Protein 1
Amino acid sequence: MKNLPVIIDTDPGTDDAVALFVAKALNINVDTVVSVCGNVNGSYTHKNVVDLNSFLSLNANVLKGADQPLSGNGFTAEEVHGENGIGGVILPLAKDNAGNIEELHHTLKRLKRADVITLGPLTNIAYILKEHPEVKANINSLTIMGGGFEISNIPNNAEFNFGCDPEAIRTVLCSDIDITIVPLDVTHKIYLSKEEIKDICGFEIDKTDSSVYGVISEIMYYNYKTSIAKNDKGALIHDATAVLAYLFPEYFEGVYGDIFVDEFGATTFKSDGNIKVLFDVERDLVMEKLKKCFTKGY
Ligand code: RIB
Ligand code: CA
C-alpha cells in the first residue's frame, strides 16, 4: 500500500489526462501537480493541469513549471494530442491559483518525504535538483515515464519525454534517487483497441457525455484515432501505465542497471546500476485496474 503524498509532473497530453484520472480513481494522495511543456506548449499544458485538477476533483496544489527545456528548443506533439493537448475537449474553466516552480522545493520540504511521478520531460525535476540538491533527501521514489530501448517514437531512436530535454534526464538519472523507468517497451504492451476502450469505460466512440467518465473516454478515443493514424496498434496510455506501475509494481517486471542518454535523448541500457528499468507487464491485471477506475463513484 502506498501511503506517502505524491507529486505528479505532467505535460497534458491525452495520456497524461487519463493518468490523472487513474490517480484520482485509485485514490492516490496527490498533493501537488506540476505542469511542464511537452506534448503542447507550456501555456496549454499548464491550462490543462489547472482545468483537469478541478474537473477530476484532484484538489491538488498546482505549480506552473517550465515553458522551455533546460537546453535546446524542445518540440511538441499536436499531431498526437490535438492543438489544445487534450484532443480538443473543452473542460470547465478553473481558476489558476498556481504557484511557481520555485515552490517545488518548499513543497518537498513541507511533505518531508514524497513519491514523485513524472509524465513529461524531466525539466522541472532537473531544475530543482540543480538549484536545491538537498531535496533529494525528500524524494522517496521517482517513477519516470520515458525512454525506449527497442522502441522509439521520435527521430534518432529516442522517446518523446527524454528527447524533449536530454540534459534534464541525464541530470536526474545521476541523482542517486530511487528511480523506476517505465519505457515505451512496456507502455506499448498496453495499447487499447476501440473495443477495449468501450469495454473499460462503457462509452461508444460517439456516445460520450460531459461526466468525468464521458470526457476521459472521449480523450482515450482521440488518442486511439491519432495512434492508429501513426500506425500504432491502438490507444497508447503511456502515462496511465506509469501511474499503475507506481501503484502496482508487482504487475511489472524490471531489471536494475544504468542508462546512457545520447544527445537526442536516445537510451542505451547498461548493466550494473541502481535504476530499475521495467520491461514487461501483466497486461490483464493492468486492464482490470483500468476498468475498475470507471466503475467507482466519481
Ligand atoms: O513518449 C510518450 C510520452 O511523451 C508520454 O508521456 C506522452 O504524454 C508524451 O509526454
Ligand atoms: Ca506525458
Protein 2
Amino acid sequence: MAEMTSGQFFVVDSMTTVVIDADASAEVARIADMLAAMLYLHPATARPRTARVVGPRAARVQRVSAGERLANSVSLRLAADRPSMRAEGYELDVQRDRVTLVAGEGSGLFYGIQTIRQLLPPAVENRDAINRQLRMPVGRITDAPRFTWRGSMLDVSRHFLGADDVKRHIDLMALYKLNRLHLHLSDDQGWRIEIKSWPRLAQFGGQLEVGGGTGGFYTQEQLAEIVAYARARFIEVVPEIDMPAHVNAALSAYPELNCDGVAPPPYTGIVVGFSALCPESEATWRFVDDVVREIAALVPSPWFHVGGDEVEKLTHDQYVRFVERAQGIVHAHGKQMIGWGEVATANIASSTIVQHWRGDSAHVHVARGGKVILSPGPRMYLDMKYDSSTVLGLRWAGLIDVRQAYDWEPATLRPGVPESAILGLEAPLWSETIETMRDFEFMAFPRLAAVAELAWSAPAVRGWEQFRWRLGAHGPRLQALGVNFYRSPQVPWSR
Ligand code: IFG
C-alpha cells in the first residue's frame, strides 16, 4: 500500500547519512553498506557494464543509539515485534528531512532498498549523470510479497554462461525482488558443474555446447561463489541435475552409465528425449548418489531439482521407479526434491515440489497435499520469441510478448491448483538459441520484470494498462544499467 505526497521530496546529498541502531546485527550493517554504496559509489547492488567508482566518499553508515533521530538520514531498522511485518515485508516512510525503513527480517530491508532505488532517478544505477540530483518523493509504503517463490531459471547447459554473467543476472534479479535462481546444470549438450568423484563429467561432458562451441563448466569453488553472491542478495540457488533423460553429456563421459556399456558421442543439436540413464545399472545409482551428495554439500538451499522431464527411452514403470529411488537419495542428503511436472505421476512425497511447465499433472500432486511452482510454457518460457520477427528463441509454446507474460492470474491457471498450493512462479530461460549475455538479457528483459510483479503484487494492485506505463518509465533505468532489453511495441518507452 502506498500513499505519496506530490511535489515534496527527500534529497540525497553529500551529507546524507545511512543510520542503523548501535546494536544492529552484522547483517543489517551489511545491508546498510549496500545502500550507502548505492547512494555514493557505483551501486553495490548492480554492476553496470560501465561501473565507475565516483567521488572521494567512503560509503557512510553511522550507528546511533535507539531513539536518536538524525536529520538528513536514511535509517534501517529491524522490528520483529511488528505483527504487521509479514515475511520479506517492509515499511518505508519518506519524509522531507529523513527516511526510515523498517522490516521484520533482513530480506525485508533488502527489498525496501530496492524500492528506494526505484524511487530514485535512474542516475543512481550508474552515476554517469553524476550531477543529477538524487531525490525521492515523500510518502509511505507498506509492502510484502504475495508468493514466496519468485524465480528465474537459467539453462547454462545448452549454452554455457560464465560465472560473472550469472552474477550480473543475480544483480538484475535483486532489482526486481526475485529470490530463487534455478540453475539447469546438466543436459544432453553439456555438464556444467565439477563433480570430484566423477571428474570426466565436467572435463569431458563440459567441453561442448549447442552448435559445437567450447562450452565450459563451473568449478565447485565457482559455484560456491555464485551461491554466496546470490545469498548476499537474499536469493537462494536451486541446482538442477536433469535425469533420467537429458543426460547425453554424462553418458558420453562414462560408458557404465549406459545399459549397453557403450558411450554415445557428444551431442550438440537441440532434439530432446533421446537419452536416458540405465536404471538397471548400479553405476547409475552410485552416480546419482555421488552427484547429489557433492552438490548438496555445495548449495545450502533446502532443494535439489532432479529434472524428470521428457523421458522417452524408459517405460512408465521404469520412470516411476527411477523418480522414487532418486527422491530417496535426495532426502538422504537432507534436501527436498523438486521435479518438472512429469514427476507427479510417480508416488512422490507431499514435501516434493512439482514445477508445472506443460500438461496437467500438477493437480495430482496437489491432491496428495503437495505444492507446486508455476512455469507455464505459454506464459513464462522466456526462450519463446516475442513475436514472429524475433530472431532468437523458439515458438513451440507460442509467442510471448510483454502482455502475454504479464496479463494472467496464477491462482486460476490450472483447475485443482488453488493459490494455497502455489509456492510461486519461476520463469525458465532455455538456451538452445541463446548464446551470449546480451542474448540472455534480450529474452529476459522486460518480461522478467512482468514475472516479478506477478509474483510479488496482489491482483488488486496490478493491471496491464498501468503496468505498461510504469514499465515504459522504467526503460531509462534498464538503459542506465546497460541491459540489452527488448523495446516491445506494446510498451510506451520513455526516453
Ligand atoms: N522443454 C524442455 C527444455 C527445453 C525447452 C525449450 C522443459 C522442462 C523445452 N524441458 O521445459 O529442456 O528444451 O523451450
